[in-house]
Design a protein that fits this description.
Helices cover 8% and strands 47% of the residues. By secondary structure, the protein is mainly β. It has one domain. The strands form two sheets. Strands 1-2 form a two-stranded antiparallel ribbon. A two-stranded antiparallel ribbon has the order 3-4. The longest helix is centred in the last third of the chain and has 6 residues. The two termini are 21 Å apart.
């Protein structure tokens, strides 16, 4: 499955997942520390739906943001 929206071109973006240790100050601790950082990918919420394009029905991958915004016409 291609992880790119065929309507807006939204694709995976990179990010960081933080590993924390210690109790936070507001709960009575000395403060939480970051002890590890791991690279990760944020994937778009893609759905495979039937779309009406110029009178023909076609299946495409579209993100939910485009579907909700009404950028496509469902078949």
């Amino acid at each position: 499955m291609s992880k790119i929206c065929e309507v807006c071109g939204k694709s995976a973006t990179s990010g960081v997942k933080y590993k924390r240790r210690g109790m936070v100050r507001r709960k009575g601790g000395a403060g939480s520390k970051i002890v590890g950082k791991t690279l990760r990918k944020f994937l778009p919420n893609l759905q495979r739906i039937k779309v009406n394009i110029k009178g023909t029905v076609k299946r495409i991958h579209a993100c939910v943001k485009c579907i909700k915004a009404g950028k496509i016409v469902k078949a």
